[in-house]
Amino acid sequence: MPLFHNLYEVEEQARAVLSAQAYDYFAGGANDEITVAANRRAFDALSLRYRVLVDVSRRRLSCRLFGREIPAPLVVAPIAFQRLAHPNGEVASARAAAAQGLPFTASTFATTSLEEIRAASAGPLWFQLYVHEDRGITQDLVARAAAAGFEALVLTVDVPEIGRRERDERNGFRLGADLRAANFLPQAGGAPHAPSGGSGLASFVRRMRDASLSWKDLEWLRGLSSMPLVLKGVVRADDAKRAVDHGAAGIVVSNHGGRQLDTAIPSLQALPEVVAAVDGGAVVMMDGGIRRGTDVAKALALGARAVMVGRPVLWGLAAAGEAGVERVLSLLRDELDLAMALLGAPDLAALTPDLLA
Ligand SMILES: Cc1cc2nc3c(=O)[nH]c(=O)nc-3n(C[C@H](O)[C@H](O)[C@H](O)COP(=O)(O)O)c2cc1C
Prior knowledge:
alpha/beta; TIM Barrel; eight-stranded parallel β-sheet; two-stranded antiparallel sheet; binds flavin mononucleotide
């Protein structure tokens, strides 16, 4: 018996085992959650113009990302506080990604330190960075990631302030006393449980990010390590071009899964202008709303090299730990494989815009 048949079913299973507070933190978005829904609707609004009588008997899903060949164009998105979903948290999801040969992106706000994640997984690891007001703390984090063999530095650029997650405010969301942001010493603010009357998370993040960060800081960041720099959260052609001009090796077209600026443009809709502006000068990826193999095919047809998967990983983790995350990733891979066969696309290069209507 498979654990679940698709990425919607596993969300229902996760919801049944999570506290309402944890489920709301994971599922929710900013304000009216219009962008959360719009990210999905953008995929559903595209139809597929499939080709027939193409030899698809041998299909290749592998793609190259920052010098490494990976078996499918899928990357685990950075997600904070994964031990809230399952006691094994990031260790379980990183291991599941490694078992599939896929990159796992560790959040700055992981509940497992980056060294512990490295020790648990032999697979490719990326590190997602929030720049702390104390630049020394940031410098130290980047050095630790590089020393632990992380292969890309993913700078999240859509959180100058944290979006208003009204579900978390209503629930007074905070981590239990046994969980903390493990990359930080407690005295550096690693404990987002202080009651604050609203969301404990919001007040925590406010202390941990620097709203003054700007383009001129990228050179400093690039100089901290030799990891390729990836900017996550870009949705405009002009910003994408600036990112390339400032030496970014990659861009993730993303609106943070609808958790930051509500009514922000759906990622899929922003993707073509970013791809055109970058013009091959950096690797373009996207995230937000990927739930089916056909979604991955649509993103790649619009020019993404790969996609990041966010909430479904959490649902797999909550429902069945490491095996659940493995199933989420392998389901998505298998769905993409089938979609490619039915589209008449034997490899990723054959996923072209003419497939879309
Ligand atoms: C619970 C949760 C926590 C997240 N934490 C982070 C984070 O720490 N850093 C980050 O850059 N993005 C974070 N994100 C955003 C994801 O990396 C990703 O952009 C988003 O989830 C993609 O949309 P999807 O969930 O529809 O796949 C988080 C998303 C969720 C749902």
